[in-house]
């Protein structure tokens, strides 16, 4: 259920069954001040102050109360005692008056005494127990989730009888109040409540329009010593599901009698706040759900800058530079500029520079402001790209310009030539940074895949580089940092070589043996690695983006923090490899093997795996987001922290796997997926579509299958103790010999399911569909709850 509300409003919800109907109770507490001109406080202040002042009392239980009532969380203070050390306290409100005399004993050193007589009645007081009624065996068996047959709604009211108005369902607007002796300084307090009204709307699943829920001001809490009051508005609406799952969203608002708003207004607000793109911006606009004529400390204030400090600073700096330039010009050409000296100096105004800071948008204008600026940014970006293309074209057309000079940047930066050019330019020398070379190289290592491809070296250049590498290896020299861009290194024996930070963009490494080699930080962008041996190699922080890997061996390879963007991995072997925080973006996979690998902190989005083997892997925090997996195995994997989000998978296997803290959610689909003999702890399958799910012999603990579609599932012999299976679709499922002790299966669909030998001890199957069940007579059903029965389909 999505909650939409102003920041000033709290919310308490309660789902309860009354008269055979499931109901959603909504309470909206709003804190106000008790000043002469009251204002609304924020929910944060409410949540901070209420537990402190109310002590052990509950602010509200969320039930819709039939009568108006008031409560007072207060103390009597010794400062107001008379000569007999007696303090007289009292409240007059809405036609009710309650006065007490509080005696302070001589031996009492405390300055105040708590006034429990104005607080809620305990649930076990005779007054409330009489209203609750008594259960009898027949009614408890018929509907154990509701209230006793003789239950009276007045039980929802918690105030003492002399603080209730049984002739009123709600307090009227602007009720006056008077309080005596409950403030440490003021002996008398009086005022009028803010005339507020609560509004509530729900949208049900499948419905398109708002449905109003009538709200009444039925409870008022006074906190005299804190000069605060809490107005609690109550309402209720019937729901189809016992957990209100049929309610898609709930929206609250606050109004005043002289400023009501239409259903059309609230429909527009709901549409803005549920629009995926800019809902967060509209949620900052509290004015849509709050009265405009009442002061509130809760809403985000509109920006009101004290002055254009940054603009003034820039303007003063610019004007100083202009005056200095004019002075130098006058000194250089006094005669020529003699007449100009008498003219007014050029100002920023003449340059159309703004003299004040641009106006900041109001909160109500923020969404439109952001949309306008995003559109302007997109337009400016498109124009800049068009200008860049035109500039490159003009540059390429200039006589004497080498071919390809107007094209985009490609290959590693020519550091030496660039630095020599800069050092030869006197004006640029002071601008040279000591670490400029390192920064340029670091930028290239991270972004080589985003520039044009480096050219492939000529056969002569490749042959020369191969000879140079062999000679260095013979001498035992390191190859770290070598520039091998575009070089053909195919077939070379580079086992154990140190190629850390080497530049090998567009290099050909097909058939090259790099076993146990060090390639940490190397650039392998667009490299060709067909049947390359990288067994045991170190590729930490290497960049393999756009690399073409086919039948490449990454056995035991370390790929921690490597970048693999749009890389191709066909039939590659990552067995026993170690991948931690590896960036795997838009890669192409064909039958990869990760058997025994360690996969940590990985997020894989919008990629396809077919025939992948993750068996025996150790996974710690790994997510598949909007991916497609087919015929993929996670058999015997050790998994902790695992997620499938909006992912489609078929014929997956987790047989014998140990899975902890995992989720298969958000429109994920699992077709014919197996968990045979697996151990699942804290795994969430909520709302997952998993027809033909195979859980035979699996052991689960704290798993949630609620609202999942498990038609035709095989759960034979599965241990599903205390499993959450609310509204789970188990049509045609086989639960024979399964352990369902304490399983919560309310509303589950067990049509044509097989339950022979199942243990349903203390399982809850209320409202479950039990048509054409097979083997129920052979199941263990002691203390199983079957009522209330499912309602007949409409």
From TrEMBL:
InterPro entries: 5peptide_repeat, DUF2169, Pentapeptide-BTB/POZ_domain
Annotated DUF2169 domain residues: 118-234
Gene3D superfamilies the record matches: E3 ubiquitin-protein ligase SopA (2.160.20.80)
Pfam family, one: DUF2169
Entry-linked PANTHER family: BTB_POZ DOMAIN-CONTAINING PROTEIN KCTD9 (PTHR14136)
Protein name: DUF2169 domain-containing protein
């Amino acid at each position: 259920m999505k909650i939409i509300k102003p920041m000033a409003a709290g919310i308490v919800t309660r789902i309860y069954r009354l008269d055979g109907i499931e109901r959603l109770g909504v309470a909206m507490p709003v804190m106000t001040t008790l000043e002469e001109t009251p204002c609304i406080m924020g929910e944060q202040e409410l949540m901070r102050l209420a537990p402190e002042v109310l002590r052990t009392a509950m602010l509200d239980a969320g039930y819709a109360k039939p009568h108006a009532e008031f409560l007072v969380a207060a103390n009597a203070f010794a400062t107001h005692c008379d000569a007999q050390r007696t303090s007289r306290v009292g409240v007059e409100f809405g036609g009710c008056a309650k006065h007490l005399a509080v005696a302070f004993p001589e031996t009492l050193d405390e300055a105040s005494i708590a006034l429990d007589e104005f607080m809620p009645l305990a649930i076990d007081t005779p007054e409330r127990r009489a209203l609750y009624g008594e259960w009898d065996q027949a009614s408890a068996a018929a509907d154990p989730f509701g209230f006793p047959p003789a239950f009276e709604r007045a039980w929802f009211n918690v105030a003492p009888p002399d603080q209730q108005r049984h002739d009123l369902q709600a307090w009227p607007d602007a009720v006056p109040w008077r309080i005596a002796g409950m403030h440490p300084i003021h002996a008398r307090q009086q005022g009028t409540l803010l005339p507020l009204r609560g509004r509530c709307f729900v949208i049900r699943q499948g419905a398109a329009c708002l449905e109003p829920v009538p709200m009444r001001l039925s409870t008022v809490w006074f906190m005299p010593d804190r000069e605060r009051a809490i107005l609690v508005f109550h309402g209720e609406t019937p729901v189809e599901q016992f957990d209100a799952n049929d309610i898609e969203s709930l929206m609250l608002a606050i109004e005043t009698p002289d400023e009501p708003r239409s259903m059309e207004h609230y429909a527009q607000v709901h549409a803005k706040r549920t629009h995926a793109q800019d809902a967060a911006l509209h949620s900052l606009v509290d004015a849509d759900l709050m009265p405009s004529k009442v002061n509130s400390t809760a809403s985000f204030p509109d920006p009101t800058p004290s002055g254009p400090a940054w603009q003034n600073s820039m303007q003063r700096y610019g004007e100083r530079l202009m005056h200095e330039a004019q002075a130098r010009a006058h000194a250089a050409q006094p005669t020529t500029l003699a007449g100009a000296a008498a003219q007014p100096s050029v100002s920023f105004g003449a340059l159309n520079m703004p003299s004040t800071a641009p106006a900041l948008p109001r909160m109500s204008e923020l969404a439109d402001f952001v949309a306008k600026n995003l559109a302007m940014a997109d337009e400016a970006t498109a124009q800049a790209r068009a200008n860049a293309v035109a500039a490159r074209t003009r540059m390429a057309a200039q006589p004497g310009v080498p071919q390809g000079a107007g094209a985009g940047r490609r290959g590693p930066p020519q550091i030496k030539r660039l630095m020599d050019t800069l050092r030869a330019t006197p004006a640029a020398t002071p601008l040279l940074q000591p670490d400029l070379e390192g920064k340029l190289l670091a930028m290239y290592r991270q972004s080589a895949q985003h520039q044009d491809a480096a050219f492939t070296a000529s056969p002569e250049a490749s042959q020369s580089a191969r000879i140079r590498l062999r000679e260095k290896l013979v001498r035992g020299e390191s190859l770290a940092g070598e520039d091998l861009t575009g070089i053909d290194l195919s077939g070379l024996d580079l086992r154990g070589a140190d190629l850390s930070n080497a530049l090998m963009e567009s290099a050909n490494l097909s058939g090259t043996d790099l076993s146990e080699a060090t390639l940490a930080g190397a650039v392998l962008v667009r490299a060709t690695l067909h049947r390359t041996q990288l067994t045991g190699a170190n590729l930490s922080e290497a960049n393999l983006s756009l690399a073409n890997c086919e039948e490449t061996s990454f056995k035991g390879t370390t790929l921690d923090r490597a970048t693999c963007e749009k890389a191709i991995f066909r039939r590659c072997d990552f067995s026993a490899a170690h991948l931690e925080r590896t960036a795997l973006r838009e890669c192409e996979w064909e039958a990869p093997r990760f058997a025994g690998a360690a996969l940590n902190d990985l997020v894989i989005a919008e990629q396809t795996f077919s025939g992948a083997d993750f068996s025996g892997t150790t996974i710690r925090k790994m997510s598949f987001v909007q991916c497609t997996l087919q015929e993929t195995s996670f058999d015997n994997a050790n998994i902790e922290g695992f997620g499938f989000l909006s992912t489609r998978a078929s014929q997956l296997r987790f047989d014998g796997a140990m899975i902890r803290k995992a989720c298969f959610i958000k429109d994920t689909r699992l077709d014919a997926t197996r968990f045979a003999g697996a151990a699942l702890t804290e795994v969430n399958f909520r709302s997952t579509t998993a027809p033909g799910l195979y859980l035979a012999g699996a052991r689960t603990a704290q798993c949630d299958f609620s609202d999942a579609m498990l038609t035709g599932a095989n759960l034979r012999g599965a241990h599903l103790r205390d499993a959450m299976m609310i509204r789970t679709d188990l049509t045609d499922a086989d639960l024979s010999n399964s352990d369902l002790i304490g399983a919560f299966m309310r509303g589950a669909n067990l049509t044509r399911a097989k339950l022979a030998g199942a243990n349903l001890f203390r399982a809850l199957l209320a409202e479950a569909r039990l048509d054409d069940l097979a083997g129920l007579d052979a199941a263990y059903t002691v203390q199983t709850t079957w009522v209330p029965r499912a309602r007949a389909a409409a």
